What we know:
With 356 residues, the protein is mainly β. It contains no helices and 23 strands. The protein has a five-stranded antiparallel beta sheet, with no helix packed on it. A four-stranded antiparallel beta sheet has the order 3-23-22-21, with no helix packed on it. Strands 9-10-11-12 form a four-stranded antiparallel beta sheet, with no helix packed on it.
Amino acid sequence: MTLPMFSHGAEKRVEEKWQRDRASLLANFNNMYNPCVVEVEGEYRYLMWFFGWANDHTNKKFPGCDAIYHARSKDLRRWEVYSVNNQWDKTMSPALWVPVIHASDDWFEAWHTGDPSVTLKDGVFYMAYSATSKHFEPRAGFPAEMVQCVMGAKSKDGVNWAKTEQPLLIRAEDTANPPPTPGRIGDFHRPSLHWNDGKWRLWFDYWHPAKGVCMGYAENLGKFGDEGQFKIQHPLSEPMIPNWPNPDVIRIGHRYHSFSDPAGYPIKDGASHWKSRQLREAVSSDGLTWQQLPFIKPDVDVDACHVPQALLTTIDGKQWLYLFYATQIGNRKRDGKYHYQYDQIRAMRREIEFRN
């Protein structure tokens, strides 16, 4: 059997041990990213949830702005996207795609829904995702000019979702129209949801005015959607990792790996700040204390790779760590502008060898 994703001539960077061929798994869309992939039983072995703008800027046909979409694959290479009339599009035609989750009338998810993180437990899909209020006028303590939180949802088929009645994680003092709060720490976002050790574990990012976007951690010993059950396990003034936006966490054996797209990658003077953000890995023995590893170089044909999600899977008797990510348009239009939109979803992988 041929490995599903990387050809014989796949590019390898020895120092990183990643294999990549720069093939697009999903493309042709307006601006989409955060590909969360879960392995299941059945003909379609891999399911993906991703989000953004499918066919047009801000998804004008659907409530709010960003929305979450769904895809499936037999081999991690060829993908079909859930589309109109409960069909699956194989042609990469985003005009046909429909979201499985979008904004609602609730103030805390009236505009943005995205960053899906999905866990399969006892035959049910559980999702944590980012949500926001609508924009309001600028005010101290709210750099995004909106309130950000983490919502939850459950599904038996990955398409039809029942949302939680309230956010899994939100700053208690936040409202649809909050007063200025200088020095505020908040804006919980970009969750990474897991069930292990008999409890829900949730890594996420949040805004710290002195340290930027940092990684935090919460646990839930109760029911998934009950109010106030996800409890942050550390002072927010002391982040798990500072400067660690868009965190994803995966457990491999007895070790935890987190992937992010932090700033700090060396760039030329005058280059876009987006290029200073690239993929990076951190490792931990307990998921709480982390060691950061060097940056992962971007693909040679793009300016930036962002918003990572990891999957551990077995192919032909070997275990592989797949890292899914989005590529930024950047300067490829050669029009003198830097384009922040993401136009491809790709993956790289490396073999995992377990040792006693």
